[in-house]
Amino acid sequence: MLRADDLVFAYPGQGEPYRFTLEAMPGTVTAISGASGSGKSTLLDLLAGFIRPTSGSLSLDGVGLLSLPPETRPVSLLLQADNLFEHLSAAENAALGLPRGTPKADGKARVATALAEVGLSGFEDRIASNLSGGQKQRVALARTLLRDRPVLLLDEPFSALDDETRKTTRELVGDLTRRHGWHTVLVSHHADDIAALAEAHYRIVDGRLERA
Amino acid sequence: MLTLPRRPLRIATATGLTLIIAALIVAVLWAILDAATGASGGSRVDLAHLLRMTALQAGLTMVLSLGVGVAVAWALNRLRFFGRDLVVGLFAAAIVTPGMVVAFGLLSIWGRNGWINQAAQSLFGFSFDSPAYGLSGILIAHVVLDGAFAARILLARLDAIAQSRLKVGQSLGLGAVQRFRLIDWPAMRGSLPGLGAIIFLLAFTSFPIVLLLGGGPANQTLEVAIYTAVRLDFDLAGAVRLALTQIAVCSVVILIASAFTPVPSALSRSAQPNWRDARPVRAVQWLVLVLATLGFALPLLNVLYEGLAGGLFRVLEQASFWRATATSVIIGASSAALTLALALVLALGRSATAQRVGRTLLGVPAYAYLAVPAVVLSLGFFLLVRALGVPSGAAAPVVVVIANSLLSLPFAMATLGPPLDAVLRSRGKLIRSLGLSGWQQFTAIEYPLLGRDIGLMLALAFCFSLGDLGVIALFGTQDFQTLPLMMYRALGSYRSNDAAAIAALLLIFTIAAFVGLPRLIERIAHAPRR
Ligand SMILES: Nc1ncnc2c1ncn2[C@@H]1O[C@H](COP(=O)(O)OP(=O)(O)O)[C@@H](O)[C@H]1O
Ligand SMILES: [Mg+2]
Q1: Each residue of B253-277: pLDDT tens digit?
Q2: What is the ipTM of this complex?
Q3: Looking at the complex, does the CB of residue B17 fall below 8 Å from at least one CB of chain A?
Q4: Model-level pTM?
Q5: Domain segments of chain B: what residues?
Q6: Among B43, B175, B473, B503, which has the highest number of CB atoms less than 10 A from its own CB?
Q7: Does the B8-525 domain belong in CATH 3.30.420.40?
Q8: Which of A122, A138, A124 is nearest to A175 (CA)?
């Protein structure tokens, strides 16, 4: 279980600080909603380690995470856009998720498997800038598969997609979460995303998380 | 925020390099100051007059070049025609065109025996006072070069105007004047102070053009005066006084300039809707463009014509020409490579630094050398090497390479810095959370993205060094000379056919390098990627 307990944080000059408490179960999607500017991305930054809380605790299965820098946290990240390096191919982008020192041949096979799992077999050599929005998000998900970290943080990952694509991409996220037992935290302000995917739902109101 | 990947090695290397460069500057300044206290007085330098003339010349150059730049950018932004890219490329090349070559080309058109006077002679039987010498000549040459440079930079601002803004303007039916006032001017205005400061500095420190066209002590820059004091009058005390004044004035200008936003180097273009101005306005635009293109291209074409027609074979037969060519190319290549290494270390370290103070400090090496122009720098090295007891002949090649790369460094940093910063701004979180190593980050992400910029930077540094006269002028000897120095000596001994041929070849080498190097490097950078 991913557990944040009273994480306190304020940007310089901010009056009342954020205080975040949340639990996320393995193999499930936990949704976060809230008005724009309410602090959703700030919450994900705290979980990913890009900013440090002034107090509180954060743990995964009882192991504290706060002392870890972003690169070693058991966390993968998927943002609304800019998830790929546009000049690299789909395979090269996905391969950035492989552990360092993976042998070449082994890596190639694993990249192919991961791309297949997100439905992008045969797109290995396509340059990222020539992929559609939905395909880009899938490549990023393939990279997440290869990294295989137990926590997946998604910040409005479907916002830039058309209705049809958002539906299939969202189903893919649900599938992968269940299959790999990830603790997925999804920021979204779309009620139907939340209804379709989330087992638990929090709303940010006045800087705090409320169960919805 | 911890969104920047942690790169202690990059920061440490860049900091070390900054310290080394700072130490070098201090040593150079110390050498100059030391010589100043050691030398006896009695210098014949008229500092007040020099300062007044140089400031007047640089101020006029700045105002005229900005005016020309705005007009040409405006015309080029509007007009669509076959060969437009070529014209834009021509103006872009202004930044690397050796001042020697432009000055020479202007002389052959406007000079005493230039086209214009010859035409006047044969048509009307009299000749003009040549405007190519003195203040007017210097101004013409500077405005040709710096006006073209300004036009290229300002055109980039106009070409980057958002499509939506143009569509709104077009649907409102704005006239040509309103369009300029409401859309073009706001897009250019922000660049003018920084651009103006750069042009002022370029003109204030101008060396070869003033040396060739100044026509004596009445119209000098501090740079030329320093050169004259050292090389011709052996007046070291005077040279040192001039150098210190030069550094002081340039530092003030840079301080003022740095208060404004710098000239953005990104040349992004938005697809522009086809929105033509009214017919009479378009006629004005064509007139501006034709005059500007002729003004810039004619002197250069004339250099090619005279050089290739006249003494080409005589020059090609001289062993000293091939030696000078080899020296020029080796020095250019070495200083381009050194510039790349310095700029990469500094820019990578700087982009990995989040704090303002750190970023400013790592940017200092670039700015410091803007304040210490070529002749001052080489004077400092000259004195330093002498103080260390090294024979100046042995130190010359090394000093020339170092001085040339340090002079290119500001342009190199301005080329490499913004794309590196942009990568980390948009993908920093991603790189950090993926835990990529610094090596992976460089080879997989930064290097392929920089391919074109690295090529551009190498080309700039190579061409600057190829056209340099300021550094080599103090260190050159009969056995150690580059093409510009050889050309200058040919002019000095009235072998103007030789000078013309060298000028033409220098121009061809410069354009070839400027056009070819970026393409070559981009090829290499992308080669392993199918
Ligand atoms: N680096 C920052 N420094 C200061 N304030 C910030 C910073 N980042 C975000 N904020 C502010 O914090 C609030 C929450 O931002 P954010 O978490 O991005 O909101 P959301 O993702 O819910 O739209 C906003 O008011 C925003 O302006
Ligand atoms: Mg947000």
Answers
A1: 877 766 664 444 444 455 566 678 8
A2: 0.79
A3: no
A4: 0.80
A5: 8-525
A6: B503
A7: no
A8: A138
